[in-house]
Amino acid sequence: MTETDAMAAAMIAPAPSALTGDAVRLVEVGPRDGLQNEARYPDTATKVELITRLAACGLSAIEVGAFVSPRRVPAMADTAQVVRSLPSLSDISLPVLVPNMTGLEQALSVGCREIAVFVSASEGFSQRNIQCSVRESLVRYQGVIEAARTAGLRVRGYVSCVVRCPYDGDVAPSTVVPVVQWLLEQGCHEVSLGDTIGAATPAHIRALLQACATTLPVQALAGHFHDTYGMAVANVMAALEAGVRVFDTSVAGLGGCPYARGATGNVATENVLYLLHGLGMKTGVDLPRLVQVGDFISRALGRDSASAVGRALMR
Amino acid sequence: MTETDAMAAAMIAPAPSALTGDAVRLVEVGPRDGLQNEARYPDTATKVELITRLAACGLSAIEVGAFVSPRRVPAMADTAQVVRSLPSLSDISLPVLVPNMTGLEQALSVGCREIAVFVSASEGFSQRNIQCSVRESLVRYQGVIEAARTAGLRVRGYVSCVVRCPYDGDVAPSTVVPVVQWLLEQGCHEVSLGDTIGAATPAHIRALLQACATTLPVQALAGHFHDTYGMAVANVMAALEAGVRVFDTSVAGLGGCPYARGATGNVATENVLYLLHGLGMKTGVDLPRLVQVGDFISRALGRDSASAVGRALMR
Lengths: 315, 315
Description:
The structure is a homodimer. Chain A is α/β, with parallel strands linked by helices.
C-alpha cells in the first residue's frame, strides 16, 4: 500500500447528501493569495514545481501569480518567470492577478490566457489597499477588462470585504450586489465573493447569497473564504446550500500560519476537499495526493501545514 | 476601552438567522476531556482557577474532572481535590466522569451532584478503551446509573465513535441509536453524541440525527465534535439545523483523545461561541472574557491556543 493509498483508506465514506448538483470546481489560490501573504516565500523553481504538482492532483484552475508592484509585493516579483517556466498545462485555467493596464500588458507579454481583477465592496479597504474609492477602481478597471477581452482573455472578478471590512466594519449585502453586478456586466465570467478577514458566519453568507440571487446568476459566483475565525468550512457549506459550486482554496492553508497569532490564511484546499468528498460531491481532485503537495510546500516554507486535514493525514 | 471591550468591538454583528429556538447551552469540557489529553497538565490550583474563571464567563455547565485510574490518566488524579477546592457554584452544573461504581463512590464522597458515563457505539473502541464489549459496558453501567440516581444525582451519557471508529471504520447510525436510547431509558437526562476522531462531515451528522429523531427526543441530545479534520464548526451548524441546542466544547480547543489515532482537541468553545453569536443565537456566555480564559490556560500549559477565534481576538 502506498502512502496515498493509506491516506485514502483513513478517510471517511461519503454520507448521503441532500445537495443537488454534485460537481464542484476549486480555484487553487495558494501560489498567489497564499504565498503573497506568507512571511517567507519560495524561489521560482519551487513555485513552478508547486503549480505543476497541484495540476497533477486534478485541479482545473490555479491562480499562478500577480503582476503587481514588486516593491509592494516582493513575493510576486517573479510572476513572469513563473508563467514562462510552466510546462504545457493547456487544459487548465491559470489566471494571474492584475491591478491595472501595466499588469495586463505584462500578462499578455508572457502569453497568459486569463486574468483576475479585484475590487473592494467597502470604501475603507479600497482606499487603504489601492488608494482610490470603489467607484474610481471600477472606472480604472473598465478599460483593463475591455482590453483584456478584446485580446481574447477570460477575466475573473474578485470582490473583497463582502461581509466585513477591517476599517469600515460590517458591509451590507446591498453594498456588495451592485459591485458584483458591475463586474459581470463588464464581462467577467465569474465573480469571487471574498470574506477577506474571515469574519463571516454561515448566516452572513446566506444573507449575502440570497441578496445576490435576486438579480444575479448564482452559477457565476464563487466563494472565497478565509479561516481567521475558523468559520470557513461552515461558510463553504452554507454557500453550497445556496447553490454556489466554485470555491477558492489554498493548499496547506497558505497565507497564514496556524501557530502564529492572527493567522489569516485562505481556507485550506485539503479541508474543503475533505468536506466535499464527505458530502458525496465530485471535484476531480485527488485528496491524498494533494495532501502530499501541501506537505511539500509547507516543508519548503519551513512551517507546519495550516490544514487540519493535511496534518491529520500526514500523521 | 478595556481589552474585552476592544474584542467585542472587533466582532461581527449577527446576521438574520433562519434557525428557530435561539438558546444554546454549552457544556465546557476543557477541564476534563481537554486537560486529560494534553501532553502537560496544570496543578490543582490552576485547574480550580480555570474552572472558576470559566464559570465567571457565564457557562452553566462545566465538566470538572474524572474519577478514573490515576495510573492510566494521571491528569485527572487530583479530581477529588479540585472538586473540594471549588468555590460555591451552586447554580452551575459541574459533572464528573465516572467509569464504574468505585468512581461513583468517589464522586459521592466529595459531594458531586452530577456524573457523566461513557459508552462506545463501536466494538473496537470499547474493547481498546475500556476492555469490554459495548453490551458488557451497558451492563456494567446499569448499576452505576441506578445507584447514582438513587443518590439523587443527575447522569449525563456520552456515546463515542458515533460516526467513525479508529479500529472498526465507519459506524452506521443504526448502530448508534440503540445505545443512545438505552442511556436515555436508564435515566440519563442528556446524551452527548461524540465524533471522537473528528471524521464526520455535516452530511454524516445530519444522517445520524435524522436516524435519532425517528425514535428519540432531539432536545435530549448534545453534539460533541472534535476538530481533527477541521469539520467541527460545520458539524455544529448541521446539528443546530437538526434541532440540537447543546454542545460540548473546550476552551482554547484543549485536548484530544490518546486512545483515538489522529484525534485532536475538542472544538474550541471560542469558535462555537463566535459561530452561535454570529447566527444570532443566545448562549449567556461572554466571548471576550472567555478568550482571556483561553489565553490564561494556554499560557499555563506553555502552548498556543488551538482556537482560531482565540488567536484572532488576542492579536
